[in-house]
Design brief:
By secondary structure, the protein is of the alpha/beta class. It is built from twelve helices and 13 strands. Strands 1-2-3-4-5-6-8 form a seven-stranded parallel beta sheet. The chain has a four-stranded mixed beta sheet with strand order 11-10-12-13, covered by helices on one side. The chain is globular, with a radius of gyration of 22 Å.
Length: 364
């Protein structure tokens, strides 16, 4: 295989080229799933011309040639796809890997569609990362969601992937039917035990033409409020980051189909959900720090890295407004410094000596 010597790893965010296989390989539809809405309107079966056009358009658009580039197969259970079609897709992706145009290949699949034979095939074509759709570690929740697998399948899959030197990613959902706050946190803690390389989390949204839409219409399912979803995902992100697990996304990527009023029936869908989660994390840490400062304090000064200011202030300066409610007599100053460590919040006051600090885990 030709080495990608001219593609040098940098701190720049990797370019992920998504290829959607649209429920291919899935034995059935889960209660919440409508790929035509969540992934967008893509062909049900891909041919080589379509595949190459997609890849080439991303490569042409990418102006930073130092970025890592990855082809990622999403939207179905890749390892459950018909073997011939699966190997066509993999060989098309591998040709870009061998040409030095991309650095890696990733696939997403179900936990019960992983075994030694499947992993050997993925290695043959240069796949380095496998995302597992766990969603939950509570069997009753998985059963009601019509997932068709249990928590033990996820544990087995992640361990097998690690034993065979694959990068692992795990997908969790907040607000599934029959789940609770404690249940979701339990799933997060089980994820921490497994130590995947990365995690993505999003809250359940009720899409048109799903079994969950019928549950919602009948009043037997109520999605999380936006504030509840943000709070849960903020807790999850902090726990995972503290355990050294990278959270690569919180919230759904918005598609054009989601902008249609008839497609999203209910749920905590927000175009900047990930930013709301970060803002909640910054405020929670700041509030804990401020517990050491008397309410009659006259002036409070915060210092953060330049890149952290937006998350610290929150949307429409909501976090600053909340701090002012706690300290109505105080002047609130916010300063930036490029030398401040990312995620570090420093506080000084006119009434107390010294500097108080706290840090948000996983901010780089």
């Amino acid at each position: 295989m030709k080495k990608n010597n001219h593609l040098i790893k940098t701190a720049a965010k990797p370019l992920i080229i998504p290829i959607f296989v649209m429920n291919s390989g899935c034995p059935h539809r889960c209660i919440f799933c409508n790929q035509k809405i969540s992934a967008g309107n893509h062909p049900q079966k891909l041919n080589k011309e379509y595949f190459e056009n997609e890849i080439n358009s991303y490569l042409k658009w990418n102006k930073d040639k130092s970025r890592l580039v990855e082809i990622a197969f999403y939207g179905g259970s890749f390892t459950g796809i018909d073997k011939v079609y699966q190997e066509h897709l993999l060989s098309w992706a591998q040709s870009y890997l061998q040409a030095g145009l991309v650095n890696s290949i990733r696939v997403s699949t179900r936990p019960d569609y992983i075994d030694i034979g499947i992993l050997a095939r993925l290695k043959k074509y240069g796949v380095t990362t496998v995302e597992i759709g766990a969603q939950s570690f509570i069997d009753d929740v998985l059963q009601f969601a019509q997932r068709g697998h249990n928590a033990a399948d996820t544990i087995k899959a992640i361990r097998l992937l690690k034993e065979n030197n694959f990068q692992t990613s795990l997908h969790l959902m907040a607000g599934l039917p029959k789940d609770t706050k404690d249940g979701f946190i339990f799933s997060v803690e089980k994820t921490m035990e497994l130590k995947p390389d990365m995690v993505r989390i999003h809250p359940v949204v009720v899409f048109h033409d799903t079994a969950l839409a019928r549950e919602f219409a009948e009043g037997s399912y109520q999605p999380l409020l936006l504030s509840e979803a943000v709070s849960l995902c903020a807790i999850a992100r902090e726990k995972l980051a503290t355990a050294g697990i990278r959270v690569i996304r919180t919230g759904l990527h918005l598609t054009k189909e989601m902008e249609n009023n008839n497609t999203v029936l209910a749920g905590p869908l927000h175009p900047a959900f990930g930013s709301l989660v970060l803002a909640a994390m910054y405020y929670d840490k700041t509030r804990q720090l401020l517990e050491q400062i008397p309410s009659e304090t006259r002036e409070i000064s915060f210092k953060l890295h330049n890149s952290d200011i937006s998350s610290f202030r929150g949307p429409q300066n909501n976090n600053i407004a909340a701090i002012k409610k706690l300290y109505p007599q105080a002047v609130i100053n916010v300063r930036t410094s490029p030398e401040q460590k990312r995620g570090l919040i420093s506080v000084t006051t006119t009434d107390q000596g010294g500097i108080l600090t706290t840090a948000i885990s996983g901010i780089t």
